[in-house]
Amino acid sequence: MDEFNADVVENRIDHMKYLPDMEVIDSDVMDQVISAMNEYDYEQYTAKDVKNVLAKERINREDFGVLLSPAAEPFIEEMAERAQLETRKHFGNSVMIFTPLYIANYCENYCIYCGFNCHNKIKRAQLNAEEIDKEMQVIAETGLQEILILTGESKTKSDVKYIGEACKIARKYFKVIGLEVYPMNSDEYAYLHECGADYVTVFQETYDSDKYETLHLAGHKRIFPYRLNAQERALMGGMRGVGFAALLGLADFRKDAFAVGTHADLLQKKYPHAEIAFSCPRLRPIINNDKINPRDVHEKQLLQVICAYRIFMPFASITISTRECERFRNNIINIAATKISGGVNVGIGGHTGEEKGDEQFEISDGRTVKEVYDAILSEGLQPVMSDYIYV
Amino acid sequence: MNNDKLIIGGHEFSSRFILGSGKYSLDLIKAAVENAGAEIITLALRRANSGEMANILDYIPEGVTLLPNTSGARNADEAVRIARLSRELGCGDFVKIEIMRDSKYLLPDNQETIKATEILAKEGFVVMPYMYPDLNVARDLKNAGAASIMPLAAPIGTNKGLATKEFIQILIDEIDLPVIVDAGIGKPSQACEAMEMGAAAIMANTAVATAGDITAMAEAFKKAIEAGRTAYLAGMGRVLSKGSAASSPLTGFLED
Fold first, then answer.
1. Which of A113-122, A323-332, B170-179 is least confident?
2. What is the CB-side half-sphere exposure of residue A386 using CA atoms within 13 A?
3. Which of A50, A204, B60, B223 has its CA 20 to 30 Å from the CA of residue A157?
4. In chain B, which residue ranges form alpha helices assigned H by DSSP?
5. Is residue B115 among the annotated active site residues?
C-alpha cells in the first residue's frame, strides 16, 4: 500500500454513522435484511431441496435462498424454464428499451474498484443545460422514450437542483425518467419526483458491511446505512419505483443476491404499490486465473442469480446492462430480463460526438437502439419504448 | 340469435370477445383482431407513444372500438387524469378503469375504483371498471354509473381460469349490467365456461399474447366464446334438469 492509501485507510470515518445532513428514517428494513443475510447458509441445501422448490407454485424467501445455492447450479436449465414461464406470464412478450445518459462524472467518493473514483486521474466533465438538451434530443431521435439519468456521486458538483433541471429537460423528450445518482434525503427525492423522475436505482454494491467498509474508503458513499435506506427514502419521497443491485463478485455473491431480493421483498411488503426492479452488474472473473474461486461470478452464476430473482419476484423488472455481451443479453431477454439498454455511451457528452469526460467502464455491447430493437423482434419478442404514464 | 347484441353504454356490439393489445407483437394485432372477430380492443394508455417507432395506435385496425385502460393508476385521482388524457388524445369515450396499488398481484382497488367510476361517468365516459368480484361493490359501481363491470376470474396473467367462479355467478345473477369476465382466463375452455354461466363477454390478453400461434389462439377463443354464449342462450340449465327429471312426477299425487 502506498503512502497515500495508507493515509486514507488510517483516517477513514465510521461507515455506520450518519453524517450531519443525512436524514435518518424510522425503519427496521436494514436490520431485517442484514440479519436474514447473516442467517442465510447456502451450503445446507441439497438437490432435493432445489427440486422441491421448483415444484412449488409460490416461492418464499427461503425458497429464493435455495435457488441461489450451489446445489441449484446443476438445475440451471429447469430454473431458466421456470423463469421464462414467469416472465411471459407477467410481461407477455414485452421487452422495454432504454438508454442511460451520463450528465456528469465528478465524484467525491473513493471506491477502490471504480473508474470514477475521486483519486482516479480521468477527464471530468459536467454537461450544462444546453448540452443535456442536445444529448437528449439526439437520443430521442432514435425512438427511445425512456431515459436513465446518471451522475457521478458528487453532491457539490451535481447538486439536486442540477439533477432536477436535467429531469425537466428530459420531460420534453421522454416519457419515462429514471435516476441513478447519489443517495439523498426524502424531500430531495420528492423534489426530483416533481421535476419528472419516477424511478430511482441505487446499487448497494455489497450488503456485507465489513467488506463494504474496506472498499468505500471515503466520501458520502462510505456511510453504509444511508445508502441502504435510499430506496425507502425514495418511496417516501413519492417515487413510483425503485431499483436494487449488488455488484456481484465484490463479496460473496450468493449472500449479496439473497440480500438484494430480501431488501426488495421487504420494501414491496411495506410499500405495496412500489414497482420493483433489479439490475445485475458483476465483476468479471479474471481470465487466465488458474485458481478456481467459488465466489467468481461466471455467466452461469449470473444466469442463476437472474433466474432466482425472476422466480422469487415474477412481477419485478429486471434490467440487463451493456456490461454483458450481445450473446448473453439476447438470450437473457428470452428468459428473465425485461429491460435492455441500447445505443449506450457511458462517457460524458458522447451522444453528440463531443465526449468531454471519460467513461466509468467499458461496455461489452455497443449496439445501436435500432440493432437492439431488431434483435428483440428476432427473438419473437416485442420491443416496448414506454410502459408508463406520469400522473 | 342474430339479434343477440352486447350493449355497453348504449353502443351495440356483435362480438363478445374483448382483446388485449399489449404483450405481443404490434404486427400481429391486426390479424389477431380479425381472427378474434373482436370489435373492442383494450389499450394501455401508457403504451401509446407519440414516437415514430412502435406507436401502438397505428397498428389498431379502423372500425374497432378502443377501450383505453388506466393501468398505472394507483388511486382514483390518477385514474381520472389518465382517462381525461386518453380522451384528449382522441382515444374516445370508453375507459376501462384499472386501479392497482399492489405491484405484486396487481389486484384492483375496489374502493378507489368506485370513486373514479362516479367522477368519470358524470363526465360522460363509458366506464368499464375492472374489479374484484364483490356484490356490494358491484352495486355501488352500478349506482356510480358504470356501463358494465369487469370482475377478475383470477389474478392477472396467471391463466388460472375461473378461480372466483361462485362470486362471478352472483354478479351475473344480481347485477343488471353486462358482466365481462376479465383477467386470469388462460384457455378457450375457461372462456367458454364463463359464457355458459351467463357472462356478457370475455376479455383476454396474456392467454392470446403468449400462445405459440397468436392469431390461431385468437380464433380459438372466438369460437369458444360463441359456443358458450350459444349454450347459455339455449338454456343449458333446463336441458340438464330435464335429463334428471323423475319419470313420474313427485307431485302427481295432488291430482289423484
1. A113-122
2. 29
3. A204
4. 29-36, 76-88, 110-122, 135-144, 165-174, 188-196, 206-209, 214-234, 236-243
5. no
Burial of B176 (0-12, 13-18, 19+ CB in 10 A): exposed
Position A278 pLDDT exceeds 90: yes
Nearest one of A309, A329, A332, A338 to A146, comparing CA atoms: A338
Q: Is A361 a domain residue?
A: yes
β-strand pairing of B11-13 with B17-19: unpaired
Find the CATH number of the domain harbouring A346: 3.20.20.70
Q: pLDDT, tens digit, for every residue of B14-61? A: 999 998 877 777 777 777 788 888 888 888 888 776 544 556 777 777
Tell me whether residue A46 is in a domain. no
Q: Is residue A34 part of a domain?
A: no
Q: Is the pLDDT of residue A381 over 50?
A: yes
Element (H, E) at A329: helix A326-332
Among all chains, which residue has been given the C-alpha cell 438437490?
A47
Nearest to B72 among A94, A377, A388 (CB): A388
Q: Which residues pair with B179 in a beta bridge?
A: B149
Q: End-to-end CA distance of chain B, in Å?
A: 42
Distance CA A198, CA A190 (A): 10
What's the pLDDT tens digit per position in B204-238? 888 888 888 888 998 999 999 999 999 999 886 55
Residue type, B256: D
Residue A54 is assigned to a structural domain of this protein: no
Q: What is the pLDDT of residues A60-109, one digit of tens each?
A: 999 999 999 999 999 999 999 999 999 998 898 899 999 999 999 888 88
Whose cell is 361517468? That residue is: B121
Helix intervals (H) in A19-176: 29-39, 47-55, 61-67, 76-91, 129-140, 160-173
What ipTM describes this predicted complex?
A: 0.76
Q: Which residues contact A91 (CB under 8 A, 6 or more apart)?
A: A338, B23
Q: Helix, strand or coil for residue A361?
A: coil
For residue A291, give Cα distances in angstroms to A186, A212, A247, A296, B141.
45, 24, 21, 10, 67
Give Dmax over CA atoms of chain B in angstroms: 82
Per-residue cell: B223: 369460437
Q: Cβ distance B22 to A93 under 8 Å?
A: no
Confidence label for B241 from pLDDT (cuts 50, 70 and 90): very low
Residue of A nearest to B206 (CA): A92
Which element (helix H / strand E) includes A371?
helix A369-378
Is A12 an interface residue toward B (CB < 8 Å)? no
Q: Which domain holds residue A141?
A: 3-11+63-384
Neighbouring-strand partners of residue B7:
B12
Decide if A387 and B46 are in contact by the 8 Å CB cutoff. Answer: yes
A272·B51 Cβ contact <8 A: no
pLDDT at res. A120: 77
Of B24, B73, B103, the CB nearest to A93: B24
Would you state the cell numbers that stand for residue A217, as one nine-digit string?
A: 474508503
Q: What is the count of structural domains for chain A?
A: 1
Q: Residue holding cell 404514464?
A: A389
Q: B205: nearest CA in chain A?
A: A92
Mutation target for B interface from A312, A369, A382: give the one with most B CBs within 10 A.
Answer: A382
User: Which pTM was predicted?
Assistant: 0.87
| Cell digits of residue B243 | 335429463
For B59, B131, B149, the CA distances from B179, given in Å and listed in that order, are: 28, 11, 5
Distance from CA of A199 to the nearest CA of B (A): 14
CB contact under 8 A, B100 and A273: yes
